[in-house]
Amino acid sequence: MSTATRTEKDPLGTRDVPAEALYGVQTVRAKENFPISGFAPLWPFVMAQVWIKKAAALTHKETGRLDPKLADAIVKAADEVLAGKHNDQFIVDPYQAGAGTSHNMNVNEVLANRANELLGGARGTYTPVHPNDHVNMAQSTNDTIPTNIRLASLSQLDALVSAFEGLRDALGVKGKEFDHIVKAGRTHLQDAMPIRLGQEFTAYAGSLDRGTRRVREAADYLRDLGIGGSAVGTGVTVEKEYPPLMNKHLSAISGLSLRIGADRIQLMQSMGDVAAFSAALRVLAIDLSKIASDLRLMVMGPRTGIDEITLPAVQPGSSIMPGKINPSIPEMVNQVCFQVMGLDTTVAIAAEHGQLELNVMMPVIAFNVLLSMRILTNTARVFAEKCVSGIQANEDMCAYWVERSAALATALMPHIGYTRAAEISKQSVKEGVLVRDLVRRDGLLPADEIDEVLDLRKMTEIGVPGGAHGMVAGG
């Protein structure tokens, strides 16, 4: 890389800028000030800011406020970035000064320098296109970054929903495939009444369906844009035509369904809509993690656990124990979900920490929400493809454990009462004898009723085992 530099000046003085850089002096200061994580800004955060700059140039061209030649150059520079060029020019650490001014100026400088090149000028001269006067015309960090977070989140929504719908469907397929398999239910990690393996998987699919719909509902609030609020939400330096024109152009550029915010001051003050969306992601992660944990429990073994299912083997499980296969994908899923829960906690604290007209904690809010969406999307896809779609049921083990469940005595309760049923349950455990065999041995039911009362499949549906004709008094 060349070590040549150019000198640029801002209100704080001069700084050397790499000669080949499209960014400028304010970006250099941000890089110097915030060597925190070493992470680059997430692409949706860059993309959405460029969308805003392109839409603003088109808007000002339409109103006549910006010279069409300059507007066209800004638009062309923006299109280059959106096509994947110049990605290495966006260098501000996600952990930066409040509000996201550094990120906003990074984008302003890149687009201004590239626009000037397209017009035959040189990098760093900022003429005829200036980063503040032209690229940032009628904008503030304070209205562009809140708008960015909404646009960036919405831009990733379809991919997230698609991934979770794919996972939901994969679980649903297993629900149908396993519907004939009766297994022991467990509550408190103790024996409970029978359930079908398919019912468990169908319920998992239902949880993700509800969670995904909840995310979509929360995302709808993000469609209200506060662009045009300028510095404090009042719209100073902004033309009246600007908000509707920005909404029109942003909708066309992004392909998103967007709305003009009714109260731009409120949309600047509050990060509540974003916090609610993040919270919906957290709830989705909670259900997802629960599913992964359940699979890890059911796959325990193969000799010393319950061994009710088999997961696809994706890698050797141990560097020292030959033949060991671990539930690697569900373990990854758990870790991602823990991360998402932590990211949401940060979003919640940061959203609360706005003061008066602005929440300056937006950079960390943006990073955490977008990171949550990225890792959840990838996780749902991998979970479906590399784990759920290949799950097999160990029917013999399911049958083995359900017959040995002490909870089967519950089915006897309508016929012999709670107290006697409890004694049978304890006796089964103590003697190591199946509940079914105790009923036969002790003559607790007529011989022709035993199989009907202890019909395992019927226990997995609503109804009274063996019918209500044998109800004990008071039952």
What is the ordering of alpha helices and beta strands?
Answer: EEHHHHHHHEEHEHEHHEHHEHHHHH
Q: What name does CATH use for the topology of the largest domain?
A: Fumarase C, Chain A, domain 2
Total helical segments: 18
**Shape verdict:** elongated
Mean pLDDT: 95
Number of strands: 8
Strand order of the largest sheet: 1-2
Ends apart, CA distance between termini? 84 Å
Helix content: 55-70%
CATH homologous superfamily name of the largest domain? Fumarase/aspartase (Central domain)
CATH architecture of the largest domain: Up-down Bundle
Low-confidence stretches: none
Question: How would you characterize this protein structure?
Answer:
The structure is a single chain. The chain folds into 3 domains: 5-137, Orthogonal Bundle (Fumarase C, Chain B, domain 1); 153-396, Fumarase C, Chain A, domain 2, CATH 1.20.200.10; 405-470, Ribonucleotide Reductase Protein R1, domain 1 (Orthogonal Bundle), CATH 1.10.40.30. It is built from 18 helices and 8 strands. It has helices at residues 25-33, 43-63, 68-82, 101-118, 131-135, 141-155, 157-177, 197-220, 242-254, 264-269, 272-298, 328-352, 362-386, 395-403, 413-416, 418-431, 435-442, 447-453, and strands spanning 5-10, 13-18, 182-187, 190-196, 224-225, 259-260, 309-310, 392-393. Helix 2 packs across helix 9 (242-254), helix 7 (157-177) runs antiparallel to helix 8 and helix 12 (328-352) runs antiparallel to helix 13.
